[in-house]
Amino acid sequence: MSVTKQKRVFVAGHRGMVGSAIVRQLENRDDIELVMRTSSELDLTNQKAVGEFFAEQGIDEVYLAAAKVGGIHANNTYPAEFIYQNLMIESNIIHAAHVNGVQNLLFLGSSCIYPKLAEQPMTESALLTGLLEETNEPYAISKIAGIKLCESYNRQYGRNYRSVMPTNLYGMNDNFHPANSHVIPAIMRRFHEAKLNGDKEVVVWGTGTPMREFLYVDDMAAASVHVMELDDETYQVNTQPMLSHINVGTGLDCTIREMAETMAKVVGFEGDIAFDTTKPDGTPRKLMDVSRLADLGWQYQVSLEEGLSVTYQWFLENQDSFRG
């Protein structure tokens, strides 16, 4: 009786929100052997260390979910770290994968790659058609570079390096730092602490009018595995050499005010919601056109309220240990 050889799959960034969700998708698969390293075990910004790791490990596939991420405040405050660390991580991993014969890789980007004033909903073809949003331009440029790295290795060497661009993600293992996190974890923590303190009001940055699309991270992980495992013919029919990335989202959006009201309901905060209009709003609207992914056979499953409820339960169970 023959035994099928397991694929050795490296999930870069397995402790992060997206990487850990991908691990949850793959960890019970009989055909996959997961390979994971913490940042203390492998510095992904170190080219020599990453090269040696790939040379030694016999990796078959890579999910490149490792990245330095943060919200508007973090992007504004640490632009050098955001562009340098992300460029180094993706360059080292993609190049080392190629040098060591890894044919299949999935790069995870971000919807911030699209122009600030891109036509809505944003299609994949909007890339590089206008100016980026100023507050996260360095991060966005690093993610655009990742897409182009994948395209370039595909075009020159025939690799199968694919890219997915998620909308705004949230979920278990998110960063709940009060200043350096994305909007959902920051507001969830703010509402939770306000409820505990008996506050009568919670202040949310901006006007509350920007439109945002939110995707639960386990949906993102399921989409990532779906795209990675599409056969070449199906994938290539739905992509083009210079348009290789695929949007991942719900195709639905809401205002920040509506999201905050849903958050208050989930957390159980019964006070008022105020908006600090001296703080930046960021991009007026960010909605992804996900028709391409739908044509490839995938749609989201988790509603915003359901996803927030699961995330809040995780938050309650992990308050003493969450990042930030």
TrEMBL record:
Signal peptide: none annotated. Pathway: Nucleotide-sugar biosynthesis; GDP-L-fucose biosynthesis via de novo pathway; GDP-L-fucose from GDP-alpha-D-mannose: step 2/2. GO terms for molecular function: GDP-L-fucose synthase activity; isomerase activity; NADP+ binding. It holds the Pfam family Epimerase. Its EC number is 1.1.1.271. InterPro entries: Epimerase_deHydtase, GDP_fucose/colitose_synth, NAD(P)-bd_dom_sf. NADP(+) binds at residues 13-19, 108-111, 143, 166-169, 182. GO terms for biological process: 'de novo' GDP-L-fucose biosynthetic process. This is GDP-L-fucose synthase. Keywords: Isomerase, Multifunctional enzyme, NADP, Oxidoreductase. Catalyzes the two-step NADP-dependent conversion of GDP-4-dehydro-6-deoxy-D-mannose to GDP-fucose, involving an epimerase and a reductase reaction. Belongs to the NAD(P)-dependent epimerase/dehydratase family. Fucose synthase subfamily. It comes from the Bacteria. The active site is at Y139 (proton donor/acceptor). Substrate binds at R190, W205, R212, D281. The record marks S110, C112 as: Important for catalytic activity. The gene is fcl. Gene3D superfamilies: NAD(P)-binding Rossmann-like Domain (3.40.50.720), UDP-galactose 4-epimerase, domain 1 (3.90.25.10). Residues 9-233 form the NAD-dependent epimerase/dehydratase domain. It catalyses: GDP-beta-L-fucose + NADP(+) = GDP-4-dehydro-alpha-D-rhamnose + NADPH + H(+). HAMAP family: GDP_fucose_synth. It is an enzyme of class 1 (oxidoreductase).
